Amino acid sequence: MDDQPDFDRFVETHAPALLRLAYASSGDAHLAEDLVQQVLIRAHGRWRLIDSMAQPHAYLRQMVVHELASWRRRWQQRRTVLTTVPERPAPDAMTAIDDRALCEALLARLPGKQRLVLALRYLDDVPDDEIARLVGCSEGTVRSHASRGLATLRAQQRRSDLDD
What we know:
By secondary structure, the protein is mainly α. The chain has eight helices and no strands. It has two domains: 1-77, no CATH class; 91-164, Orthogonal Bundle (Arc Repressor Mutant, subunit A).
């Protein structure tokens, strides 16, 4: 297939961002990998059409959001939230990893849409109008989810600081 190198190049470039979005939105590294893998499998079959779009990365990001929503509908009661990062940090980056692990643990406690909105907004720099389209709500609701999510994170952080 002559579009294979283009698809491979796209995956090398954009899969880490898709995986980061899926992980931040789901709180489960294994689920994130499965979601992205399913999206990439479906995208490979339609790559010529997707590649001809103005923003194929945005389309695949939307596919990840839809796949996560679909998974949540199917398995709403069987969610596992990770409290630690499943990777070994480099010795010189310990403080950054600790901060990231704390951030991920705090994010994991948020409701799904708040976590998804924060992941799209702060990890992928997606504007509110596009988040609203991806999530299927109004821009005001996006801002509300972001505001409530950030307020919850701040409160959790303050409680964590007081416990130390």
